[in-house]
Write a structure and sequence with these properties.
36% helix; Spore Coat Polysaccharide Biosynthesis Protein SpsA, Chain A; eight-stranded mixed beta sheet; elongated; binds 2-acetamido-2-deoxy-beta-D-glucopyranose; 335 residues
């Protein structure tokens, strides 16, 4: 009885029709998963990290992802609608901090391009509150002017910037916003600067250095400074940094303490808070990098990588890189 049962089973299992159908099924599933996987992989990449689509193009000289797998945001890598939808659903709120706004350009252009559709509050820190232009902002958005005391030396200004940001987060921002973004004021928004830029810890690739290799980066090479770096990943621009309030507070505190320690040791980092920022991001890798589209210098001749100008350095300062609110400028060796 058992023997005939096994005989029957055997004859079914090895029947040519049965084998053929198993084969057909396998082939079907193989293609099904192949196609599904490709699709899902592409979609997930698109949503979460942006794709490597561009980097497969040999004509393109830029990276779209860091070695620690943080995306570098370039035009064409993301679907703006997907990011906007996600952040609206998550009720994301954004505080933008900026120091000493005496001109309309920054704020007016931010109203046209910065995080449209999300609740945004501009925190303008200034020693001259009366000079802040009285602009009307869109619904869900607001402008807050915060008075700070005046510092004459730009070194002190750059140091106090970190302290002020940290204090503001502690006192107010942490209760009202998920994200904090800190901007230099000498800039103008020109195109979408949207929710794709939001992330846990966000750094900006410096437009002058995004193609350069490490030895060219202007890290602080002075071993006496807390900002000293022997080597690094990228050269980040201090004109924009951001992230969740927790991370931005951590960054501001760390940079402030290091600047303070340098000051006690009578050392000043080469590029001040930018040197310290680079050191910080070397130790604490940012989770997202913004391409130079997010802060372009129109005087760079080769624009071949840049398909959209989202923010540009204000033209009036074309021959200097840094202009602080007291009018003192530092000319630079960038060129
Ligand atoms: C966003 O806000 C709505 C309305 O207040 C709320 O129902 C929803 O749970 C919030 N979503 C998240 C992710 O917090
Ligand atoms: C700003 O403008 C609004 C409306 O135009 C006005 O109510 C407000 O008083 C103005 N504020 C200042 C400081 O001028």
């Amino acid at each position: 009885m058992t023997l005939s049962f096994f005989k029957l089973l055997f004859s079914i299992l090895f029947h040519p029709y049965f084998l053929l159908s198993i084969n057909a099924l396998c082939i079907f599933w193989y293609f099904y998963y192949l196609i599904l996987y490709q699709f899902v992989y592409f979609k997930m990449n698109n949503l979460k990290f942006g794709t490597d689509v561009k980097s497969t193009n040999s004509a393109v000289s830029f990276q779209t992802r860091t070695s620690w797998r943080a995306p570098i945001i370039w035009e064409g890598m993301f679907d703006p609608k997907v990011f906007d939808q996600k952040h609206i659903q998550e009720n994301s709120t954004v505080a933008l901090t900026v120091f000493a706004v005496g001109r309309f350009t920054f704020l007016m252009s931010a109203e046209q391009h910065f995080m449209l559709g999300l609740p945004v509050t501009y925190y303008v820190f200034t020693d001259l509150p009366d000079k802040v232009p009285n602009i009307t902002v869109a619904p869900q958005r607001s402008l807050k002017v915060m008075q700070i005391s005046k510092h004459n030396r730009w070194q002190d200004i750059s140091m106090m910037r970190m302290k002020t940001i940290s204090e503001a987060i502690e006192l107010e921002l942490r209760h009202l916003f998920r994200y904090v973004f800190c901007f230099d004021v000498d800039q103008e928004f020109k195109g979408r600067f949207g929710s794709e830029a939001l992330g846990d810890s966000v750094a900006l690739l410096h437009a002058h250095y995004y193609k350069a290799k490490e030895p060219a980066f202007t890290y602080d090479r002075n071993v006496k400074s807390k900002a000293f770096m022997k080597t690094g990943d990228y050269y980040y621009h201090a004109a924009i940094f951001g992230g969740t309030w927790e991370n931005v507070k951590h960054l501001a505190d760390a940079c402030y303490l290091n600047i303070l320690e340098d000051k006690l040791n009578d050392v000043e980092a080469l590029w001040h808070d930018e040197s310290h920022l680079n050191k910080y991001f070397w130790i604490h890798k940012p989770s997202k990098l913004l391409s130079p589209e997010y802060c372009w210098d129109k005087h760079i001749g080769d624009k071949s990588d840049i398909h959209i100008f989202r923010l540009v350095w204000a033209p009036k300062h074309y021959n200097t890189l840094r202009t602080w609110q007291n009018g003192q400028t530092i000319t630079t060796e960038y060129s």
